[in-house]
Design a protein that fits this description.
mainly alpha, A middle domain of Talin 1
Length: 358
């Protein structure tokens, strides 16, 4: 993913521009978004390098905790700014992006080069079932809210209770993975995609100190860029005619996960569909079962309570996206046509998200 590092040239543009009076907020948004892409890739690599020094169990926990860290940082700044619709849209967009866009490109290009690709249907089925359960947990508070629109208090309590249950399932999934013999492991640890893809051939070239320093520097850079990006959102939406909802559901997930997405496609191109499928589903699981619940609790501390109430179109998109991804994974093999179908669904949803009045 070194070719993405060229985008780091936009980091000083965004940082210096934020101190210049009259600098276009739209260009600040674009520059900071582009700079986050390689910074997120470096953060993922530093996490994997650090995990190599800690052993498989602690390393797996690091990967499972710090995966999607870039997107988490962006959404934390969005919560602080009170952009709660953007935060919830980014949760939806991340899940859909992984199971439709990433998996779609992986299956399409993998199928074009290698023909029909096969993978462990039991492994994929367990992950798909876990993801369906996670999306169901996200949907239930919304359905309760629509049925009882006057009960704001109970919806907040239901969201908190749901978040606790989701974190418990996430922790149990990690425990299951760590304690089960590797040869019989059916439930993958929902680690970040970049880490999953580098586990098979880790180069281990970084010393411990470099791994820690790089991790801290990348985190700090992403935090700085995220503050600039979020601060320019409102002006950018007004200037470009985009909604805050569209920025959250399409732009933020892509910015935070481009490096992971590229690795997932590369593994499928190399005829490792098993790992590519695990990457896309595992990253979605982490967003749904870890990132979303964490944001619920952090939002309380920031004074901007976030609830798991999504609009009706998001609910339909989540259910439909997960359903078609599960159907693709159920037979243990994939072909390029299935990849094209997943991409078509994502394009249709993206167009609808662009025009949806929210």
């Amino acid at each position: 993913m070194k070719y993405l590092n060229i985008l780091l040239v936009f980091a000083p543009v965004a940082i210096i521009g934020s101190f210049i009076a009259g600098f276009s907020p739209t260009w600040l948004f674009i520059a900071s978004a582009l700079a986050v892409i390689p910074a997120a890739g470096i953060l993922g690599q530093a996490t994997e390098e650090l995990a190599a020094h800690t052993g498989p169990r602690v390393g797996g926990l690091l990967n499972a905790t710090l995966g999607n860290a870039a997107e988490l940082i962006i959404t934390l700044f969005a919560i602080r700014a009170g952009l709660l619709d953007l935060v919830k849209a980014s949760i939806t967009g991340s899940i859909l992006g992984n199971v439709l866009l990433v998996l779609g490109f992986a299956i399409l290009f993998g199928g074009i080069k290698n023909g029909v690709q096969r993978f462990d249907r039991r492994h994929a089925s367990v992950n798909a079932t876990q993801l369906i359960m996670a999306v169901l947990a996200l949907i239930i508070p919304s359905l309760f809210f629509f049925a009882h629109t006057e009960t704001v208090g109970p919806v907040e309590s239901l969201s908190l209770g749901t978040a606790i249950a989701m974190l418990a399932i996430y922790a149990l999934g990690l425990l299951f993975t760590f304690r089960r013999p590797k040869d019989h492991d059916l439930l993958s640890t929902p680690e970040p995609a970049l880490a999953k893809a580098t586990q098979a051939a880790h180069h281990g070239g970084w010393p411990l100190r470099r791994s820690i320093v790089t991790l801290l520097l990348a985190t700090g850079l992403i935090a700085w860029l995220s503050e600039i990006l979020v601060g320019a959102v409102e002006h950018t939406t007004a200037t470009l005619g985009l909604s805050e909802f569209f920025i959250g559901i399409i732009v933020v997930p892509l910015v935070g996960n481009v490096a992971e997405h590229a690795v997932a496609v590369q593994t499928a191109w190399k005829n490792n569909m098993e790992l590519s499928l695990e990457v896309s589903l595992g990253s979605s699981l982490q967003i749904a079962l870890f990132v979303a619940p964490v944001l619920i609790f952090v939002s309380l501390l920031m004074g901007h309570p976030l609830t798991l109430v999504f609009n009706q179109f998001e609910l339909i998109a989540l259910f439909g996206g997960i359903l078609i991804a599960a159907m693709v994974a159920q037979d243990g093999e994939s072909n390029w046509l299935e990849g094209a179908q997943l991409l078509a669904v994502y394009v249709i949803l993206a167009l609808a998200f662009f025009f949806v009045p929210v």
